[in-house]
Specification:
heterodimer; A: about 140 residues; alpha+beta; 3 helices; about 35% strand; B: Elongation Factor Tu (Ef-tu), domain 3
Chain lengths: ~140, ~400
């Protein structure tokens, strides 16, 4: 999916929602290019184990740059069914291809309520512009 | 130009930083570049070739007059009265209980007219505090005492300061300066003339000092000519692999070099001996504030001591993480990052002296999770050919 087709959490995680063969909704979650650009110099990422259940807004991992650590928040409620553990040793994948190779986790959504709170591309762009102006 | 009130101060190079896409942050009341490209790139460039940094935010305090030497000797922990021309010393300013108010460099120079003066370079975050401390200890009756006058001027805003650091710093600077840099020793400096037309042959101070663990120099020069000199350094530095370097890599460079940073390793509750800075305290000479307290502290066993820590895994500790040995809390970190040179998480902190032995296995509470680590010697990084 292109960035324009994704949904975003205010904390800069992106979400792509697809329906699998069984009819379950699966959210693929990553970090936006805007956030990665702001972080720069990534040195470490901590991702959860598959099987963990998360609620919407719960931290599921952390990403560290040379200067600081940032939590990663789950945009949806559900069970983590897949983790892109290759990133741990290849952090460049995150910055090079944030919406492709840089995906973090896939979550089988258990409650769709949080989806309605996510931002679409235009609203997220607006938020990013406001954050830039605040700097 | 002074920035409007409540807005951070701007160095003479502010416009250049912004025009060249630097990420700016508010640091100690100054709007400063944290990075131009990436912290790791600028860090590696400084280690391999060189980095040019705007350090004009640091406070520059000038002392002249027949009473200047004794005044400074009674203010600083280090001997000043015996300093020879061109000598620079690392010193501390302590309060009456021996706590560290600031760590400074004091240099003794002649200006272009041959008049002697001392220049004390203080941390940006402490400038106002130290200026007030000086005024408190330099009342008019002392400053104007016949035959022992002291003229104190805060020249921070009149001068700029640039750090040129790295193995090729000397190759960049030598052609631009009418002083023999090759023969200049570490912690020496002098009045010199800038030879490039952009600097209009104006003078400044060049010193072999720095905060990166590399060979290098610092230039103190008039604020008006700083942008032109900066341009020349950037242009002539490029073919040598020397790049503009922001405060972000200044922090990772000094951390690898095991150098303390005020507000992290040092504060008013830290005393010099536990910080490993006893060498900067001359307790037998002039009576500076805190001298008697430090004599007493020197007689006591250390309650804690500054150490290096290396984390065995990949998850870095930052400042204020508790350090444990088994179940026992033995100390706390004061700075931490992932070392761009070692590619491993490193930290500095304070631990009880009995655990300060290199190799001692400890663990650090990093945001609620135990990270195995061990005590290491400082510095983490030592450049080739560096004398111990």
């Amino acid at each position: 999916m292109t960035p324009e087709e994704l949904l975003y959490r205010k904390t800069h995680e992106w979400v792509a929602v697809e329906t699998d063969a069984t009819g379950a909704k699966i959210a693929t979650v990553g970090i936006s290019a805007f956030a990665l650009e702001a972080l720069t110099d990534l040195v470490y990422i901590d991702l959860p184990e598959a099987g963990r259940k998360v609620s919407a807004g719960e931290p599921f991992g952390e990403v560290e740059s040379v200067k600081a650590v940032s939590d990663l928040y789950s945009p949806v409620a559900g069970e983590i069914i897949e983790v892109n553990s290759a990133l741990t040793d290849q952090l460049e994948g995150l910055s090079e291809d944030p919406y492709g190779k840089g995906w973090l986790v896939k979550i089988r959504i258990s409650d769709e309520a949080a989806l309605s709170e996510l931002l679409d591309y235009a609203a997220y762009q607006k938020q990013c512009q406001e954050e830039m102006a605040d700097d | 130009m002074d920035a409007p009130e409540n807005k951070p101060c701007r160095t003479p190079l502010y416009g250049w930083h912004v025009a060249h896409g630097a990420k700016m942050i508010d640091f100690a009341g100054w709007s400063m570049p944290v990075q131009y490209t990436s912290i790791i790139q600028e860090h590696e460039a400084t280690r391999n070739s060189g980095g040019i940094a705007d350090i004009s935010h640091m406070g520059r305090l000038r002392f002249e007059g027949p009473g200047a030497a004794v005044f400074l000797a009674e203010l600083l922990t280090r001997r000043v009265a015996d300093m020879t021309l061109g000598q620079i010393r690392y010193s501390l300013v302590t309060n009456d209980s021996g706590g560290i108010l600031d760590d400074v460099l004091v240099g003794y120079y002649h200006n272009a007219q041959g008049q002697p003066y001392y220049l004390v370079v203080v941390n940006a975050c402490n400038r106002v505090k130290i200026v007030n401390w000086i005024r408190q200890h330099l009342p008019p009756e002392r400053a104007e005492a016949p035959g022992e006058e002291v003229l104190f001027t805060d020249v921070t805003r009149l001068w700029a300061m640039l750090a040129v650091q790295g193995p090729r710093a000397i190759d960049l600077l030598q052609p631009l300066i009418d002083a023999d840099l090759q023969s200049m020793k570490y912690y020496r400096g002098r009045q010199a003339r800038l030879l490039h037309p952009a600097a209009s042959r104006q003078g400044g101070i060049v010193s072999r000092t720095g905060y990166t663990g590399e060979d290098g120099f610092e230039l103190a020069l008039g604020a008006q000519i700083a942008p032109a000199v900066w341009d020349v350094l950037v242009e002539m530095g490029r073919p040598l692999g020397i790049v503009p370097a922001g405060l972000g890599c200044r922090d990772t460079l000094r951390l690898e070099a095991g150098m303390p940073l005020y507000g992290h390793e040092l504060c008013e509750k830290t005393h010099p001996f536990e910080a490993g800075l006893g060498f900067a305290c001359h307790l037998a000479g002039y009576d500076f504030p805190g001298r008697d307290a430090l004599r007493e502290i020197a007689r006591q066993p250390l309650r804690r001591t500054r150490v290096g820590l290396q984390i065995d895994g990949r998850r870095p500790a930052r400042e204020h993480c508790d350090v444990y040995h088994g179940d026992q809390k033995i100390g706390m970190t004061t700075s931490g990052t992932v070392s761009p040179t070692l590619k491993k998480p490193i930290a500095m902190g304070y631990v009880s002296p009995e655990f300060a032995v290199p190799g001692t296995e400890v663990w650090i509470d990093v945001r609620g999770r135990k990270e195995p680590a061990h005590i290491t010697e400082l510095p983490f990084y030592r450049r080739k050919n560096e004398k111990k």
